[in-house]
Amino acid sequence: MGIHYDYKSTRGAKAMEKQAKREKKLAEKKAKKLAKQGSPKNLDNKTIPIDQVITLDHLTNPDKK
Fold first, then answer.
1. Domain that holds residue 22
2. I need a labelling partner for 56 at 20 to 30 A (CA). Which of 20, 30, 43, 65 fits?
3. In this structure, are residues 58 and 48 in contact, taking their beta carbons and an 8 Å threshold?
4. What's the average model confidence in pLDDT over 54-64?
5. Is residue 65 part of a domain?
6. What is the DSSP string of 22-61?
7. Residue 41 confidence (pLDDT) above 80
């Protein structure tokens, strides 16, 4: 009878531990995924002004000014 009494009295604590374990595992998985992707590339701000028409030259030679 001791095992049944112990189960109900510690059920809430065990559930909280399982939830914390799940969240910890999920956070580690997310951090690993972000580390694998690396930081976003630092792109230079090379945008074409709105009033300018985009031509084939802009698409083929983006470094040309």
1. 2-60
2. 43
3. yes
4. 78
5. no
6. HHHHHHHHHHHHHHHH-SPP--------TTSPP-HHHHH-
7. no
Sign of CA dihedral 30, 36, 38, 40: negative
**Is 53 part of a structural domain of the chain?**
yes
Three-state secondary structure call for residue 8:
helix
Task: Count the Cβ atoms, other than its own, within 10 Å of residue 58.
Answer: 13
Q: Whose CA is closest to 10, among 18, 46, 51?
A: 18
Number of domains in the chain: 1
Indicate the SS3 state at residue 2.
helix
For residues 46 and 63, what is the distance between their CA atoms, to the nearest angstrom?
A: 9
